[in-house]
Amino acid sequence: MNFVDFKYQFSEKEYVKAFIYFAFRRLSTKIVLIIFLFAGISHPIISYYDHSLDLSSFWILFCLPFIVFGFYSAAKKIYRSSERFSSEIYNSFDDEYYKVSGKDFKSEVRISSFFKVEKHKNWIFIFTSKRQAIFLKTEDVTPEINVVLKKYLIITISKIIYK
Questions:
Q1: Which spans are transmembrane here (predicted)?
Q2: Parallel, antiparallel, or unpaired for β 160-161 and 116-119?
């Protein structure tokens, strides 16, 4: 018996946004980037007033854009290398399994094995492990499905961040 059925399709731009958002969603990651940015900006200023300009901090500022660009290019490469992300994806929840299928793939995950669920402004991440998640666009999840998902997932998952 299917509990919830819906489908969606990612464009390359949407997938890249989801990938980068997923990578930088944690507060600790944002804090580390801010610390590197602050160190890169403040060190030359302090060195200038000390009359000993040290160029080591410029490496920090030089590397930060490459870190973000690295995530961006990795996301584009992943999207382009697999038809799985660009094809239409069908989802269904039943009593025990989350089933996902597309043009050339089919998979099912036991709902009891979900690690946690996070709902953000544009994305819902259903974690199957600490580092792996299923991306769902909130705009593809209708209000009716959203209510059902919320009720159903709160019952089955202990770690949930779903508002």
A1: 31-49, 55-75
A2: parallel
Q: What is the CATH number of domain 2-9+86-161?
A: 2.30.29
Distance CA 139, CA 108 (A): 23
* Model pLDDT for residues 52-81, shown as the tens digit of each residue: 556 666 666 677 788 888 889 998 998 888
Among 104, 70, 74, 69, CA closest to 89: 104
Q: Where are the domains of the chain?
A: 2-9+86-161, 14-81
CA distance 153 to 115: 11
* Residue 71, token pair as written in the block: 């995530």
Task: Judge whether 100 and 91 are in contact, CB under 8 Å.
Answer: yes
**At residue 31, what is the residue type?**
I
3-class DSSP state of 131: coil
Which residue, among 120, 135, 130, 121, has the nearest Cα to 159 in the 3D structure?
Answer: 130
| Whether the Cβ atoms of residue 22 and residue 135 lie closer than 8 Å to each other | yes
pTM, to two decimals: 0.66
Contact status, residue 18 vs residue 135, Cβ threshold 8 Å: yes
